[in-house]
Every structure is written in C-alpha cells, then in structure tokens.
Give the backbone structure.
Amino acid sequence: MPHPQPLTLTPALPTDLLTYILTHQSYPTTLIICETRSNFLSSLQRCMPNTVQQQPPLHVEPSSPVPAEIEAEPQRATCHPLLVATLHQIVTSRYVNLAFIPTLSHLRAYLAVFSGEANGQRGEEEGGPPKQQFEKMGNRTPLLVVYGLVALHRDTSEWSAQGLGSSVAALVEGGWRGGRGVVVLEERDCVDVDVEGGGGERMERRTTGWEERLPMLNGSVKRVGLESEDGGWSGRTVEVGRVLGRWFRFERGEWDQED
C-alpha cells in the first residue's frame, strides 16, 4: 500500500486536535506534542468553556403545585464533548501513543529511533484493539501527528529554512519507516479579551502562520531597528509555507471549514 503524502493542516486549538485524533486515528497512532505536559493542559483548560450550560427548568404555572419528582430532579447539565467519557473515546484513547517533547534536540532524537511499533507504558508490545472479522479492509492509515513543530524552532538557532527543513526531513523519514501517515499542525492561540458593555468574550487568532518568513541558514543575525517584511533578518528569507511545501500538501482543517 503506497504511503500517503504528508499533510499539514491549519492551526488548531488543543480541543480541535484531540477531536481530530479521536475521529481519524487508526491503530497504532502516535501524537507528538512539542511542549511540556503542563503547558498543554493549561492551554486545553483555557479553551474549554468556563461555565457548564444547564437545561432550563420546566415551566410550571404559579398557581399549580410543583410535582415532587420534578422538584427533586436535578437540572441536567451539558458540557464539552471531550469531557463526556463515551465508550468510543475510552477505547480509542487507550491505543494512542502520546509523547510530550518540549525541545528540538529531543524531537530529532525521538524521530531518529522511531520505528512505528506500538509499545505499552512499561515497554511491552501491545496487541491493539480487537479486530472484527466482518469488517472490510479500509484505506485508513496509522498516523504520526506532530503538534507545534514550527513553534518549536522559533527563538532558537535552528529558526531557519535549513533547520526546519532538517527536522521535517527526519519526520517524513520516520513516518515512512514506521508506515505512518504524517500530519503536522500548529497551535492556535485562544485568548480572552474584555469587550465594552460586557464581561469577557473568547477571541481566536485565525492565521495559518505559513506566510511567516524565516532566514535561509542557521545562525542568521537579526537587524536592530524597525521590523520589515522579511522579519528584520539579514540575508535572504523564505516563507514557512515554501519550506513545508517541499514535502507536505496543505489542507484546511475541519475546524476551519466554512458552513
């Protein structure tokens, strides 16, 4: 079976990332998050609704007595789908290998030895979910998903087309070696801002980041002064999308689909 072309998606919130994994994963799937576990959980918590929506109570005429069973019944609350432990979510999450890799050197070392084998928490090989004999063979491919690859290079000596290209080449090679479909996406910021006449509203910065420019070679010097179109770097610069475009095809994520 031929390997699918690596895919890069538009930036996604942590909640969108987890929903994508639970929807599209095929055993075995590996998710690499390029930040610490505590930072990712903090971002995930900020994207969750702060309040629990409750269903309105039943309308009862003031003159009529309230039945005891209605008065004693608590209001049923609805929350984010990820907070509902469905059977599909429980079974699927058991067979997703999760790795938090906050530094570039650790990421390259991880990809250099990546074999695609699914191991348990104590290192033993897992057998995977039970296979149904009546299911037909599909075209779904196990995934190797990297969340925050470009951001991991920012503010380092590897922030260049040379450094990013080396990491992407190692990622594509690791995915090919392990028989995985490679998917890359960045984290979308979700911030709360005060609005006039109200409390706070959640706003999202919807930029792909593919148009951001970076220098061609490692060790480039940033010029002091006003920012320019090339980001203030000395020498030639190139867009992030041009670097990724050598290996990846670009698609809009399900969270950015227009109705």
